[in-house]
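Re: the request from the purification team.
They wanted to know what the chain is likely to look like in 3D before they choose a buffer screen. I agreed to run a prediction and write the result into the notebook, where they can find it.
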Amino acid sequence: MGAAPFPAGILIAAVAFHATVVLSSFPATFHLERGITANHKLKLSKLKERDRVRHGRMLQSSGVGVVDFPVQGTFDPFLVGLYYTRLQLGTPPRDFYVQIDTGSDVLWVSCGSCNGCPVNSGLHIPLNFFDPGSSPTASLISCSDQRCSLGLQSSDSVCSAQNNLCGYNFQYGDGSGTSGYYVSDLLHFDTVLGGSVMNNSSAPIVFGCSALQAGDLTKSDRAVDGIFGFGQQDMSVVSQLASQGISPRAFSHCLKGDDSGGGILVLGEIVEPNIVYTPLVPSQPHYNLNMHSISVNGQTLAIDPSVFGTSSSQGTIIDSGTTLAYLAEAAYDPFISAITSIVSPSVRPYLSKGNHCYLISSSINDIFPQVSLNFAGGASMILIPQDYLIQQSSIGGAALWCIGFQKIQGQGITILGDLVLKDKIFVYDIANQRIGWANYDCSMSVNVSTAIDTGKSEFVNAGTLSNNGSPKNMPHKLTPQPAGPCSISILVAASWFIFTATGRAM
């Protein structure tokens, strides 16, 4: 009796006021023209939009802040198989649910008249279509626009002499794809800055308008409005907001691994004393790391280190857009053999649709070994059994647990997806070209700082605000705040911020 195979697809990536100065003989005379028309009938939406732009400039001039996003979804391929967040774009702001993807650079959403875009979702979220014509703050990006040229070198943008529109054409590792054109419009968000929460902030960003989708992107079972690329290239939202001085060139996430899912996603650095860092491989299109070896139960596997080297056809990539994890072909068989040799006296190996599985009648933590992925700089990523196993079903009263790591036939690519990333803090310090991580309960609070340009990692005890508003520099026990879906509770303590994840899969 065989069990159904679990999904194993890869998704990689992807108004100032009007003033006139008249100079004659000294002293100069200033004639100020009002930004409101003489009949005082400027639409309220225009006034609100002008205020949003002004507030954005005030935010930019006052320093870098932390921007947080709600997190929903779970890694479990039998439930959702992805993590996603909700964004607000355009005027008036409209909600869009987009997958969190560190394997691509660009934010794109489905647009009106899209061919192949799903109209409903099995995730029970409302799907929207962005319409540039209905947002007065939207504008199309031409090929001559400097913002279009930012994506040419990284192949995130293409130009057509036929219509002079800056466009894109993305193909993902699972065979799906999308193409469309770029628009500029406002991204709305809340920012923590200088010990205060600034609501209803906004900033102009360039993002993709999807006119065509193919492959798994057309399916409704796990459909979202688009993909939020968190790559390090210039077209990413992280880079765009950093260039405007709104947020640091860094982001962090902590993805919950239980069935409720959710987690924490911020533009900023999560600060935790156990975080270890390893340098990014320079000049790579993805978040490539130098993995040196794999250890099982404390024993380093006999794998040639060159297997993990980075080149155009191999390397180790951190990718939140991949559900499972994938090992280079030359490393996969030694890994499976090491696991099986350790657990075989206690469990029965079971092959299910080509997947290496085990029938277990007790706790996997009592049977399966700890795995360590070892990286440059002495940083090790410790994997407990739940980080490399997935429970598939039950057979004859025994649980069937399968290895979640897959083999990429004939390739030397290792991809660490959500199966490995969950239940850990991950910090993507783009400014200092490094990634850090630490095992963590992502239902708990975290400390977040924008002070990432120093390259230092330090922990400061979070305080609470006293009645007079001054921070108390004393340890504070952090407890999760109960709340509804898509919410993140914020406690502010001076320039250190505490985020509590309460998002859950819908």
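For the purification team: Residues 44-62 form the longest helix (19 residues).
Please add any questions underneath this entry.
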